[in-house]
Amino acid sequence: MEKKTYKTTGRARIGSFFAKNPDRQFTTEEICRAINGSDVGRSSVYRHLSELCEADVIRKFHSASRNCSVYQYVGAACDCRDHFHGKCIVCGTIEHLGCHDSAHFAGHLLEEHGFAVDCGRSILYGVCARCRALKEREEND
Amino acid sequence: MEKKTYKTTGRARIGSFFAKNPDRQFTTEEICRAINGSDVGRSSVYRHLSELCEADVIRKFHSASRNCSVYQYVGAACDCRDHFHGKCIVCGTIEHLGCHDSAHFAGHLLEEHGFAVDCGRSILYGVCARCRALKEREEND
DNA sequence: TTGCGTGCAAAGGTTTTGCATGGCA
DNA sequence: TGCCATGCAAAACCTTTGCACGCAA
Predict the structure, then answer these.
(1) Least C-beta-crowded within 10 Å: which of A64, B41, B55, B69?
(2) Which residues contact A120 (CB under 8 A, 6 or more apart)?
(3) What is the full DSSP assignment across A101-140?
């Protein structure tokens, strides 16, 4: 049976924060600060984040440089000509891989290889985070 | 100036362990156990692992399910699975876009987006240097 | 009134650092 | 002999869990 959920300010704040900042990834630290002046209520933040992940409202990634989790809103509309797309060969999901590095790489291809890539037409095939996690879990059981 | 390194058993063990097991990822836990009966010398293992990463002998990834780092040997031979390919939509030529930035971008997709791109299957569409030059000349005439 | 949400503190796990000792060259 | 490598313990770090209290419905 489905669990009841209450509408609380904490929950609302996190949700609207992501909706307002759909194109960037945030650490838990940043999220804590953003939704609250001081960094209180860490545990609640973690709880809401995992809730939102399960509901597929946001996605969890791992930042190697900062060695911690980062979260990003699962965006709605965007201009698909200026970023790459990753298609998961397992589940078929298409991910928008738009970010600074994406643009940088396109620039590099043009400058160093003379190749003017058309992001809108190019699809990168691979395995998405979710399917990799599932696969890993299977292998370890 | 380059720092001296001594040939020690610990260093040799880790190196040969990876060379013997090139096609799988290992957690630090597994590595500790593999190179030594008991799990001693954890800090040394970590130190060697980061050394090997810097030397690009192994690569560090993050296992979402186990929530820890995993390491894998970087294979020797360069085949078409580890660089992108650009197909020119004008002349049809396929270019091998293998370079440091290419690898870096693939790494970025994995680390920051959780997307494990399969370069061998992914084709970037665009216009190659030759065709761009031709087109430019036409437009200017 | 019920039971979920919250925040604090404590615990959990992985990784890093400090330091004295041991070993290579 | 000089310096690097090692291992232990402690610290740092991110994240989860337990628990009592607060608050939505």
Answers:
(1) B55
(2) A80, A81
(3) HHHHHHHHHHHHH--EE-GGG-EEEEE-HHHHHHHHHHHH
pLDDT, mean over chain B: 78
**Mean pLDDT for all residues in chain A:** 79
Provide the chain A residues 81-120 that lie in CB contact (below 8 A) with chain B.
86, 88-89, 95, 97, 99, 101-102, 104-105, 108-109, 112-118
Give dist(CA A25, CA A134) in Å, integer. 22
What is the topology classification, in CATH, of domain B80-140?
Dna Ligase; domain 1 (3.30.1490)
Which nucleotide, over all strands, has the C1' atom closest to the CA of B51? D5
State which amino acid sits at residue A110.
Answer: L
d(CA A128, CA B111): 11
- Strand-pairing partners, residue B96, are B85
Task: List the beta bridge partners of residue A2.
Answer: none
Percent of all residues in chain A with a pLDDT value above 90, rounded to a whole number: 9
SS3 label, residue B47: helix
Looking at the domain covering B9-73, what would its CATH class be?
mainly alpha
Give the nearest nucleotide to A9, CA to C1'.
C5
Do A9-73 and A80-140 agree at the fold level?
A: no
Mean pLDDT confidence for B114-120: 82
Q: What is the pLDDT of residues B43-77, one digit of tens each?
A: 999 999 999 988 878 878 777 778 889 888 876 54
Strand D at less than 7 A from CB of A67: yes
Mean pLDDT of B86-95: 75
Domain range summary for chain B, segments of one domain joined by +: 9-73, 80-140
Q: In angstroms, rounded to a whole number, what is the distance separating the alpha carbons of residues A13 and A57?
A: 14
Residue B78: the pLDDT is: 45
Estimate in Å the CA B42 to C1' C16 gap, whole number.
11
